[in-house]
Model the fold of this input.
Amino acid sequence: MRNKDNDLLKYHQIEDDMKELIFSEDIQPGDKLPSENKLAAKYQVSRQTVRKALQNLQAEGYIYSVHGSGTFCSELVRHKKNSKNIAVVMTYLSDYIFPKIIKGIDSVLTREGYSIILKNTNNSRSRESECLEDLLMKDVDGIIIEPSKSHIYCKHINLYKKLEEYGVPYIFIQGSYSQMEDKPQVLLDDEMGGYLLTEYLIKNGHRNIVGVFKSDDSQGQNRHKGYAKALKEAGIPYDPEKVIWFYTEDRRIHPYTGVLEMVRKDKSIDAVVCYNDQIAMNIIKALSDEGIRVPEDISITGYDNSQTASETGLRLTTIVHPQEQLGEMAASMLLKMIRGEQIDKKVVISPELIEGNTCKKR
Done:
């Protein structure tokens, strides 16, 4: 007997494969798709399973059928550029700094009569691809996007090329992919931010400074560069053993356990530079659980100046993140692109350090 669960997975696979062929332009508008019999043989499923996949693709506008002739690749939705819709694709929507970024975007776009289509990737590359595929089927005037895991090579660059082919302008915010550095973007100078925090600790007598950074986005990589640069300028040897790298998926556990292991092995550690405020508060909890006091025993710095920083009564020494300003600048730049005006393709905002009570002079 045929496995129904396997057939269910297979028709999703057929849909995904057909979409990939369409967006990579291996299948062009007007091209005829293989017959149901050929697809059934290729995927080793029933014609009913193939038909289900094709029906879904047709409902989404990817293909159309001609009675007696077969199934063909359709022209994707033509972008009329007057929908007054702007898509905003963020890694997260409802927590941390992201609501204020969206608020800044909305304040500019609403004033100009635009509506926002919000999409959330959860910092997943596959979700980002799905979002872009969906937007290619919608009539939108432009897109503001925070790339997912921006330090990792982008494998769906063909979707961005499709946006350009359709004349849909897009802007990166808070990071960009290495092979798309020439595209419009609005960023905070994260390297300088990491440098300012580390320099601050050094000037306050710290010499044994641990760094905790996120490895899969450009923000983490650049903040690490600033950390390393400040150590070098101060004549403090860079020690890779004093750097903890973590990924999106292990952000709640690895920094916590990694710092605990370090301080247990090396009692001379006197400060920790953290990727952001969330990580800093997590590490403060880890140290507290170990009986280590902040800032009396170890100084801690954050990044982003988020509300999270004040929940325990401690005010982090951190970098101000101009969340609303970042959103406003991205929205204003995108509107200029829509109007065909000249723009500075790369806008970099200078960071500002603010002192809290989580650092102590040594």
In short: The two ends are 73 Å apart (CA to CA). The first helix runs from residue 4 to 23.
